[in-house]
Design goal:
229 residues; mainly beta; 13 strands; globular
Length: 229
C-alpha cells in the first residue's frame, strides 16, 4: 500500500517567528547602507551646472564587470550616444557573445532582450549620470553648498538625490532614502568626456556592483535609425 502523505502542522508561533526573522533581516539589510553625511561646504545658490550631452554623436567603447550575490559577469561593450537624450547600449560577454542591449531615450529604458540586462543597470537617473548628465526632476527644496572646487547639491526629500560636481563636471550621484545612501554612481576625472575613465555603480541593499572602464571615445557622423528599435 502506498504511504499517505501527511501535512505536518506548523509549531505554535511559527508565522510570528517568521515575521520577526523577516523584519530582522530587513533591518540588518538597511543597516548595511551607509548613513548619508551632512552636506559639506558653505551655502550657495541652488544653480546647477549645465550637463547636457555634447552636441555631437559619439561611440564609447568600454570594459565592464558586474557582480551580485548570485552572478558575476564581465566583458566589453559600446554606447552609441546621440544628443540630446538618446543612448544605445550593447554589452558583450568575455567570449564575444551578446550579453544584451538597452535603449535609453529620455526617461524611458527599454531592454529588448529581456530583463537580465536591466538587472545589470542602474535606474535611469544614475544611468544618465554615467554619461555625465544630471537627469533628476527639479524640486523646490533644492539646497547647495560649495567646498573649494566642489559643489554639492541635494534635490528632493526622501528620497533625496545628492550630486557632486568638481569644476562644474558631474562626479557623483547618490540616491538617499531614510537618511542612508542606498545607491550611488561615481565617475573618475576623464569619464566619460575624456579618452578614458572609470565609472562605478553600487546598490548597497541588493549588493550589486557594476564597473565600466571607458577605453575609447569616437566622434561619428551619426547612427542608423534602426538602432533605436
Amino acid at each position: 500500500m502506498a504511504a499517505r502523505s501527511a501535512i505536518v502542522p506548523r509549531p505554535r508561533g511559527y508565522h510570528s517567528a517568521m515575521r520577526i526573522a523577516l523584519v530582522a533581516a530587513l533591518v540588518a539589510l538597511a543597516a548595511c547602507a551607509p548613513k548619508a553625511p551632512p552636506l559639506a561646504g558653505v551655502p550657495a545658490p541652488a544653480r546647477l551646472p549645465a550637463t547636457a550631452l555634447p552636441p555631437v554623436h559619439r561611440q564609447l567603447t568600454f570594459r565592464w564587470s558586474y557582480a551580485d550575490p548570485d552572478l558575476q559577469a564581465r566583458g566589453e561593450g559600446a554606447a552609441r550616444v546621440a544628443p540630446p537624450d538618446s543612448v544605445r547600449l550593447d554589452l558583450f560577454l568575455g567570449n564575444g557573445v551578446s550579453g544584451g542591449r538597452a535603449i535609453l531615450i529620455g526617461d524611458s529604458l527599454e531592454t529588448p532582450d529581456g530583463d537580465r540586462v536591466r538587472s545589470y543597470l542602474p535606474p535611469v537617473p544614475l544611468l544618465w549620470a554615467a554619461l555625465g548628465r544630471l537627469h533628476v526632476a527639479p524640486a523646490p527644496d533644492t539646497v547647495a553648498r560649495v567646498d573649494g572646487d566642489t559643489l554639492r547639491v541635494e534635490i528632493g526629500h526622501n528620497p533625496v538625490w545628492r550630486a557632486a560636481f568638481v569644476h562644474d563636471e558631474l562626479r557623483r550621484v547618490d540616491l538617499i532614502e531614510g537618511g542612508r545612501i542606498r545607491q550611488s554612481l561615481t565617475l573618475d576625472a576623464g569619464a566619460p568626456r575624456g579618452q578614458a575613465g572609470h565609472i562605478q555603480y553600487t546598490h548597497t541593499g541588493a549588493r550589486r556592483k557594476l564597473e565600466l572602464t571607458i577605453v575609447r571615445v569616437d566622434t561619428v557622423s551619426g547612427f542608423d535609425a534602426a538602432i533605436w528599435r
